[in-house]
C-alpha cells in the first residue's frame, strides 16, 4: 500500500481554514502605467517650454520698443525736426485755347515754393511726383516736380511746366465763361511728391507729401499776369 502525502506549502489551491472559498481573493495585480506618466510629463515639459518662449519674445519686443523710444527721443532732442513748408507762388498761362471740337489745350507754368527750416535735416524729392491744375473736378493740365536734394535751411522755388489736352463739356464751358466774366475763377492745384528724410549722409524712410492749394484767380488769359485773389494751402503726410 502506497501512501501519498500532500503538503499545504506545495498546494497552489491552499485556502485559509474556516474561510469559504468564494470569499478568498487572489493577490491584486499592480499595473504601472509607465507610458501615461511619460506622456503627462512630456505635455507639462512642452507647455513650460512654450511659455518660456512666449515670455522671451515679449521681453525682446519690449526691449526693442524701449530702445526705439530712447533713440527717437535722442534724435528729436538733437536734431529738432520741423516739417517742410510749401506754397504756390505764381501762375503763368502760356496757352489756354478751346478748339472747335471742345478740346481745351492748356499750358501753365506753376511756381511751387518749398522751404526746409531744419538745420541738420535734408530732403530728397523723388521722381514719382505729380502736379495738376483742376477746374471743377476736371484736370486741365499736369506735370512733374524735378528730382533733387534740398539741403539744410534752404528755400527752393520750382517752375513746373504743366500741359494738357482735355475735352471740356458744354456745361463746364458755360460755367468757365461766367467765372471769366466775373473775374473769379476757382482753381485747385494738387501736388504729390515722394520725400525722403536725410540725416547727415544717412537716407531714412520715404513718405509722400500731398499739397492742395485752392486758388481764386482773376483770369487765365495767355501771357497776361494772373492775379491771385485768394489762396488756401493745406498739406498732409502719408507713410
From TrEMBL:
The chain crosses the membrane at residues 53-79. The keyword Magnesium does not apply. GO terms for cellular component: plasma membrane. The keyword Transmembrane applies. It is a single-pass membrane protein. One of its GO terms (biological process) is defense response to other organism. It is found in: Membrane. SUPFAM superfamilies: LEA14-like. InterPro entries: LEA_2, NDR1-like. This is Late embryogenesis abundant protein LEA-2 subgroup domain-containing protein. It comes from Sesamum alatum.
